[in-house]
From TrEMBL:
<keyword id="KW-0812">Transmembrane</keyword>
<feature type="transmembrane region" description="Helical">
    <location>
        <begin position="318"/>
        <end position="343"/>
    </location>
</feature>
<feature type="transmembrane region" description="Helical">
    <location>
        <begin position="31"/>
        <end position="51"/>
    </location>
</feature>
<dbReference type="InterPro" id="IPR024194">
    <property type="entry name" value="Ac/AlaTfrase_AlgI/DltB"/>
</dbReference>
<feature type="transmembrane region" description="Helical">
    <location>
        <begin position="205"/>
        <end position="224"/>
    </location>
</feature>
<dbReference type="InterPro" id="IPR004299">
    <property type="entry name" value="MBOAT_fam"/>
</dbReference>
<dbReference type="GO" id="GO:0016746">
    <property type="term" value="F:acyltransferase activity"/>
</dbReference>
<feature type="transmembrane region" description="Helical">
    <location>
        <begin position="427"/>
        <end position="445"/>
    </location>
</feature>
<feature type="transmembrane region" description="Helical">
    <location>
        <begin position="6"/>
        <end position="26"/>
    </location>
</feature>
<feature type="transmembrane region" description="Helical">
    <location>
        <begin position="82"/>
        <end position="107"/>
    </location>
</feature>
<feature type="transmembrane region" description="Helical">
    <location>
        <begin position="258"/>
        <end position="281"/>
    </location>
</feature>
<keyword id="KW-0012">Acyltransferase</keyword>
<keyword id="KW-0808">Transferase</keyword>
<keyword id="KW-1003">Cell membrane</keyword>
<dbReference type="Pfam" id="PF03062">
    <property type="entry name" value="MBOAT"/>
</dbReference>
<dbReference type="InterPro" id="IPR028362">
    <property type="entry name" value="AlgI"/>
</dbReference>
<feature type="transmembrane region" description="Helical">
    <location>
        <begin position="57"/>
        <end position="75"/>
    </location>
</feature>
Amino acid sequence: MNYSDFIFWWILILFSVPFLTARYIAKSFNLWRGVFDGVGLAALSLILFYYASRTSFLVFIVSLAFNYIMVWLVLKMSGWKANLLATIVIVIDILVLAYFKYFGFFVQEIIGLFVSLPPNWKELSPIPVPSQIPPGVSFYSFQMVAFVVDSLREKKKKPLAVLDYVNFISFFPQIVAGPIERRRDLLPQMEGFRLKFTGENFEEGLRWLSLGLFMKFVLADNLAPYIQLDKMIDNAWYIWFEAFLFTLRIYFDFGGYSFIAVGLAYFVGVRLELNFLAPYTSQSIHEFWRRWHITLSTWFRDYVFLPLMGSNKNWVPFYLFMTFTLSGFWHGAAWNFIFWGAYHGGLSLLLRYLGRPFYAFVGKYVFQPQIVSWALTQLAVIFGCLFFMEINTRRLIGKMLIIANPFNYSLANIGEIFSSYSLNQGAVLSVALVLGIIVLILEHLAVAQKKFEYELLLSPWLSKILLGLTILLASTNTSDFIYFEF
């Protein structure tokens, strides 16, 4: 859901208050039935999704109904029949995602390489070209695919209630931008759902909500105006600085969304998987991907990489590279996302074969080699963000050429970065950077003390401070969450 849209919060309040009131009164007279909790959750989730995107609601409902019927049939079958039907469902789910997200890219960028397309090819196309990507389709399609596979693998197959499945797929905190939940984790919480609106859940949820709101509306949204994605920059230092800002912004933006989702889920007694675990504390690219967008990384590991590899380990490097490239392409129908995925795949292979000799060499000459490892990892991530943030391929190549030229790094160019800001702009940027760095330091301290990565940030006293700072410093120019585009 779009937490930056006040309509979301109004609908949430206008639905929840009467529902909870009616629930309390009905329970007082012993008129409330447990199933009403599940019905209420499904109704709230579907209403919120409808108002988030009415044009995409029909696509979601059709996918939801189709997948439920097919999974119900798969659970009734066994052997090759179940495998065949599951394969058909997965192919259809992927084709639906591919049509809405990649059809235009495939025609224009792939077919266009071999055939000259007229400017109005979209109007002439016999197949309608989607004008926009339905919100959440990348996330709920993957969750549906995972559910089909996991259902097929179930040893004890039991009937699947339609209400449980609807709540599993449409659960409002995570339907649009994850986390991508698994059957084993979320479905047991949705089976015979009962609302657990307790003081403990409310307190825990409020801590996550405070952290998420602060990261999104104070940090990410205040950094966003300083990242210019639609113009060419000929200052090498400026390119690096923007990439650094984008690296911070995308974590605070997507991490903020994920933590808001976790907090809202806590309010109703549901535990969602964490999508992030302080990724900028990582000392290697491998560790980074164990901490960054965790549910997507594990999805590609379990449903792409491992099935491809099977028992043939000779092709592991190729499968690893392809998995990373596909995960990059999942983020968007543009070449830069393919380059970004391939870049991280290449880094993983480089680390796989040269990591140990390199770290052994560094360890001989550096007192704290882990600091070098951390710095190199962050530099690699920041450089990778140049691919992620720049959709225009020509501008991307131009920026790469500029930062590759050692003569473009002058002291005068450093001053040029900050001279372009007004006093107010400089103040806002400085405050956002200082607060963001404090957040990262607290994550590092927790990791260094071998605590849970967000233990310090979730402390009761700090949560109150973060909530207060959000009220005082939230950006007036709120932006949609970056991952809504995916």
